[in-house]
Design goal:
Modified residues (4-aspartylphosphate): 52
Largest sheet: 5 strands, parallel
CATH class of the largest domain: Alpha Beta
Protein name: DNA-binding response regulator
GO molecular function, one term: phosphorelay response regulator activity
CATH superfamily of the largest domain: Response regulator
Domain OmpR/PhoB-type: 125-226
Shape: elongated
DNA-binding region: 125-226
Distance between the termini: 17 Å
Radius of gyration: 20 Å
CATH architecture of the largest domain: 3-Layer(aba) Sandwich
Strand content: 15-25%
């Protein structure tokens, strides 16, 4: 489990991000007050910091400098400040990335894992080298089963990669269409999603009629298990 400390005084946003990242095995502890976060960092170990710049009691840039000076931990700035000076200053202070609000939580998840891979983070390496049957390589847009590459169409890859990333969680039909660059309303109206799901099952299941990995949750969507 990846552990992240988030310093964010927008509690509604913090809750959304915490719940979203949880499905990717990322545990987030949010601190509304920067002083509380700095105290906690002396006690508990985190893999990464997500830091807002507009905070009560202490400016986010000062918090960034304090973290860089006192701790060896990567920092992603998450801020609504539009002044380029703030971005430049944060990066010069030692922040590893700057994500302007508003942003899609999917982008945050990707940036987190990209930064941790760059730091040769053991938890990311362990996650990528697990004994799971299926492994997803987003950079190469490839999926393997038992180290054998699956021959997938673009639509099949999009759907299966989404389900793998949200392993053990139910993914609705609407969510699949929303997260797809290929699928569109024509697919939805024609029922082709079910056809694509069946094609995927024929390629990954030992018995497609009794799916073990890609399960249909009636009335809710699909779930991927391994």
């Amino acid at each position: 489990m990846i552990k992240i400390a988030m310093i964010e005084d927008d509690l509604e946003l913090a809750e959304v991000l915490c719940q979203y990242l949880k499905q990717f095995h990322i545990e987030v502890t949010n601190f509304e007050e920067p002083f509380l976060a700095l105290c906690d960092l002396k006690i508990h170990k985190y893999d990464l910091i997500i830091l807002d710049l507009t905070l009560p009691g202490m400016d986010g840039l000062d918090v960034c400098k304090k973290i860089v000076d006192d701790f060896d931990i990567p920092i992603i700035i998450s801020s609504a400040r539009s002044d380029i000076t703030d971005k430049v200053t944060a990066l010069k202070l030692g922040a590893d990335d700057y994500l302007p609000k508003p942003y899609d939580p999917r982008e945050l998840e990707v940036r987190i894992k990209t930064i941790l891979r760059r730091f040769n983070h053991s938890k990311i390496e362990d996650e990528d080298k697990t004994s799971k049957n299926f492994l997803l390589d987003e950079e190469k847009r490839e999926i393997t089963k038992n180290k054998n590459y699956l021959k997938l169409t673009a639509a099949e890859y999009e759907i299966l990669s989404l389900l793998i990333k949200r392993e053990s969680f139910i993914v609705s039909r609407e969510d699949i269409f929303e997260n797809s660059d290929i699928l569109n309303q024509d697919y939805e109206n024609s029922g082709s999603l079910a056809v694509i799901i069946n094609r995927i099952r024929n390629k990954i299941e030992d018995n497609p009629k009794e799916p073990k990995y890609l399960q249909t949750i009636r009335g809710m969507g699909y779930k991927f298990l391994q």
